[in-house]
Specification:
The chain has 204 residues and is mainly α. The protein is 72% helix and 0% strand.
Amino acid sequence: NMGYVPELTLVVRQWQIPEGQRHAAATLRNLATPEHISTLVTSGVVEVLVGVVTNAKTLLPVLHEVAAVLAVLSRDMEAQSRLLHQLPAVSNMMQLFAHFIRTRQDMKLVFYSLGVIGGISSNGTLRDVVVQNTDIVSQITHYIAPDTPSDLIKVVLWTTDLLYAHPTINGGVKNEMLASVTHLKAHASDHDVIGACDDLLAPS
């Protein structure tokens, strides 16, 4: 019931009750279907969730659910427009996601972090924030390998495709990425993965 969204956004802010936060975020995640995304975004859910992610008191189980919701909502143009009005918070969020990607301490968060990064990177200004404020692109390259799980490698390749052509990325990082993609393709059997590799290896 979308009428509960304002109450859910109130609960998801309450870091003092993490279990309540987690349940509220999980409910928002379940509501984040194509027919409801616009309602969630216009209700201010994106701004609230970014605040939860960047709150140092937010616990990992809550971050899992919050990042999962953001991974869906971040592809929406209105959501991206709202993120453009809070670029410092978005930059802080990218720094946190870069940490998860770099340390590999929580692979579920790596997956959802990449989903958010890829989602917002279809917007040029937000892509600038991703690339210029973090080492995300070089860190993502380390996941382009045959032993990376199938669901993760697909989001890695999708996100890489959105980011690697950015003019500020140096040639060394690009060459490393292309070499990793070539190696991955040689060992891949999944047609979606092979197709994504072909897209990245195609002349620009």
